[in-house]
Amino acid sequence: MKIAITGATGQLGRLVIEKLKARTSADQLVALVRNPAKAADLGVEVREADYNQPATLSAALAGVEKLLLISSSEVGQRATQHHNVLEAARQAGVRHIIYTSVLHADTSPLSLAEEHRATEAELKASGVAYTLLRNGWYTENYTGSVPGAVAGGAFIGSARNGRISSATRSDFADAAVTVLTTPGHEGKAYELAGDDSYTLSELAAEISRQTGKNIPYRDLPVADYAAALAGFGIPEGFAHSLASLDADAAGGALYDDSRQLSRLIGRPTTPLSEAVAAALR
């Protein structure tokens, strides 16, 4: 049985491969990547697979039984890119596709959810067994800003008092590995989020506690937050997208209390305090 992972040199893909190597034989794993040279250190078979070049996908999926389709990072192009992968997988005879979607994809107000809904619909209509991993927010999406917040004296955002049920990439990677290596997941959609939720004010309080410094949360209008992100060097379009996502979080778009993730992986999700501590190292 061959298990293939798309986006294998990305942050989530690398974690999944390392965790899979601890659960199954490395010679059963296939890393699908756009640039094979970047995957030389993965310790598994590497095949070129470019979402934008369908001709590369059919050969890359030959002999694959299970496919983890990690969603593309190219917002606005993902529905087409994912279509290319799904069509190639169907033609190659892949038997089970596991797709990393977004939390509550069917009802989410997040701007990025529409492309996920399109891919989910195509996957359900494909005739191939599927599992939807509706991943919530990565804790690292926020803790990546911790050093800057400490240096600048405040944590900024536009989420107001919205509660965020994030989990770490490692938590989400464990979920993918569980589905790839254990039976009974076909046809299921898992809403995956952290056991506990927090507001950005509570995140700032945790940063303050661990550093011994007063790091308040400053809530900004969406336009001001986008401008601040652009000032940090983030491309303007992406900065506006991030600020908009923060505003959606204010309305509860990143909240979930079902604890499906911890049940799936058989352990509690990583506490916020641990993620903040890792960011401060």
From TrEMBL:
InterPro entries listed in its UniProt record: NAD(P)-bd_dom, NAD(P)-bd_dom_sf, NmrA-type_oxidoreductase
Pfam families linked to this entry: NAD_binding_10 (PF13460)
Domain NAD(P)-binding per the UniProt entry, residue ranges: 7-183
Source taxon at top rank: Bacteria
Residues forming coiled coils: none
PANTHER family cross-referenced by the UniProt entry: NMRA-LIKE DOMAIN-CONTAINING PROTEIN (PTHR47129:SF1), QUINONE OXIDOREDUCTASE 2 (PTHR47129)
Entry protein name: NAD(P)H dehydrogenase (Quinone)
Organism annotation: Hymenobacter psychrotolerans DSM 18569
